[in-house]
Amino acid sequence: MKSILYALVLSTFLFGCKSTKQQPTPPPSVASLLNAAHFKHVELSDPELFTLPADEQKRFLNYFTKRQGGDLRDDQILYHYLENKLTNFNYFSATLNAQQTLQGHQGNCISLAILTHAYAQLAGLQTGFQAVSSEPVYSKQNNIVYVSGHFRTKVYAPLNEDDNYLVPPGTVIDYFPARGSFYSGRAELKDLISRYYSNLAAKALALKQFDLSYSYILKANEYTPNAAALYNLAAVLHRQAGDLAGAKHIYQTAMQHGFSDTNLLHNYAVLAEQLNDQVLAEQLNSQLAMLEQDPFELLATAINARNNGKLFKAKQQLEDAIALAPYLSEPYIELAILSYQQGNEQSSKEWLEKAIEIENKDEKLALYHAKLFALKDQH
After folding, report:
1. How far is CA 216 from each of CA 37, 147, 222, 267, rounded to the nearest angstrom?
2. What CA–CA distance (Å, rounded) separates 119 from 22?
3. Where in the chain is the domain with CATH 1.25.40.10?
4. What is the pTM of this model?
5. Per-residue pLDDT tens for 72-84?
6. In angstroms, rounded to a whole number, what is the distance separating the alpha carbons of residues 282 and 289?
7. Class at the top of the CATH hierarchy for domain 2-21+293-377
8. pLDDT, tens digit, for every residue of 7-61?
9. Nearest 5°: CA angle at 74, between 70 and 76?
10. 230 near 194, Cβ under 8 Å?
11. 153 near 128, Cβ under 8 Å?
């Protein structure tokens, strides 16, 4: 079996290269780019994000402990409790803490991720968070462009010290399952907390409560000082407050450090129009058009370039495909092939592990696992 798997890898991995990237200069924090002269700091109360009422804590722990040791893993017990608890839940756009979400029986995906983490904490279970991409949904309010995003929670199964999994088992709890939604990246607890404050900042901004929005941005900055969404929020805040030069400086700084997501580009283009800078507006619209390229087309041309020995071009197109659709496993597999063909087996393993992490189709996962284990069996 080992020789068959080894042959499978050799028949797929021929030749290629992967360069080592230099570490870029860390970008400045969002807080350092805010013009404090325009805003007044508002004292924010502690939202006690993950605190549940005492009677609910007792109710959940009784349910949880009674079912431990049975047919269900601990993470699955938690899932079933939430499934029963959230029957007739109203998926409302408000961003709330755990107690507000529970009592109002409503909230958005951030609210529900907060609620899930609150229960997981009580049960002593580890959580992870996932950013989820879907076809962009655009909206515009008060001359601010919004692009929808989504967040979901993975509650990990308890593991023994000697357990070794490439992808740790657990239960993904997603309250907004939708066709066309894909895993697009890992997130941490700090990202969840930052999104909570960012959402409140966006809400205050829409209501023209500029000082409150400024204060929430500063709070979010404590958790993710270099988040693209925060740069965008900070720039929009300055534009709405009349500081167009400050807004442009924030956008320029963000883009110089590689932050160019759809939200940021759209709102920067709005600013360019307001500044009557047609050259900049056309430049930004061209970049937006690039973001709307088809990643499968880029993948096909990359494979063709590799087959014709144009390895640098293939690598660039694969990186472009990943930038457009980080939830697709195929570009990572192609990068694994290029790395292996160059003799960089460690890099090849890392790309394969990334493909395994994001792929959700069993038949592809089986193939990727086989390739990875074959690589490991060579040593």
Report:
1. 16, 20, 10, 19
2. 41
3. 2-21+293-377
4. 0.69
5. 999 999 999 998 8
6. 10
7. mainly alpha
8. 333 333 333 334 445 566 789 999 999 999 999 999 999 999 999 999 999 999 9
9. 90
10. yes
11. yes
